[in-house]
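Note on ligand handling. Small-molecule inputs were canonicalized before submission; formal charges were left as drawn, and no protonation-state enumeration was performed. Where a ligand contained multiple stereocentres, the stereochemistry in the source SMILES was retained. For NAP, this procedure yielded the string shown in the input block below.
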Amino acid sequence: MSTNRRNFLGTLGAAGAVTALAANKAFAQTAQETPAAAPMFATPSADSRALTGKVAIVTGARANLGRGFAEAFARQGADVVVHYHRAETLDQAQETARLVREQGTRAALVQGDLGRPENVKRMFDVAFSEFGRADILVNNAGAIVKKAIADVTDEDLEAMININTRGNFLCTREAARRLSDNGRIINIATSLLAGAAPNYAAYAGSKAIVEELTRMGAKELGDRGITVNSVAPGPVDTPFFHSMETPQTTEFAANLSVAGRLATVNDIVPIVEFLAIPSSQWITGQTIWINGGYLTR
Ligand SMILES: NC(=O)c1ccc[n+]([C@@H]2O[C@H](COP(=O)([O-])OP(=O)(O)OC[C@H]3O[C@@H](n4cnc5c(N)ncnc54)[C@H](OP(=O)(O)O)[C@@H]3O)[C@@H](O)[C@H]2O)c1
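Structure output:
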């Protein structure tokens, strides 16, 4: 059998291969002579929890979206590395870890500024030392500033680039080196990358790398079955959003959605959860806009 044909059948798995071959006598003959090739991608676990045996790393998971992702992965059976940034938020990170364990899986905590490569490496080291592997990375950590371009200070710019640009790159690089085959990289972008709004140039500009990492990562890592995708939320009802807004701008942002409200964490979590499970295998290199119809692309 040709290598191409064998690879194609491998993607179908043994059952699919037999069905396809039955329609073609010549190939059916070959199938009797040659054992079916191993599936290219791991088949989903028989356990009803789709992420049983997997290990997820969620950055910036002390609360809000990151906590939601961590809990969802645990519900699906994954062990979770809960990353948090500022040491003084340890109690919040511990609460995330408690919520993970409540789902019957394991949690490990790791703290640090992910703009620094040594902290990124240590975060993956924790996944391996505690759980023996890393399968899923959610690049959720991020920072925001809302200022006119003319008013952005050098410090503002460095803070945005530190985590939104460098941090995302460093985490993706470490994932490219150490994630298991059939793994997942899920980036948290922003709908501002498509729906430009004034005063977000430093934030959205520094986040723009996420879409490039998604496209390039998908192409580079796809032959290992690793998918790379972004989700791009519109305004989400968390302190991160409110810290930059007034009641008037909040109302304006809410009314951009067709439902006239901000997103909640629960509007975003199921999409990220789906991108993490084996049945999302065929989605890679994409940005999924989650904004209640504020943008339609
Ligand atoms: N809320 C929204 O409207 C919205 C919309 C679109 C996209 N997003 C994106 O969603 C993600 C989560 O946002 P959220 O609303 O859930 O707010 P959040 O809880 O404040 O999430 C941001 C997290 O990133 C961490 N972080 C900041 N700087 C870091 C650094 N240098 N190194 C490591 N971690 C760092 C923060 O830790 P500290 O608090 O300790 O600094 C925090 O845990 C962000 O990437 C954000 O850009 C949010």
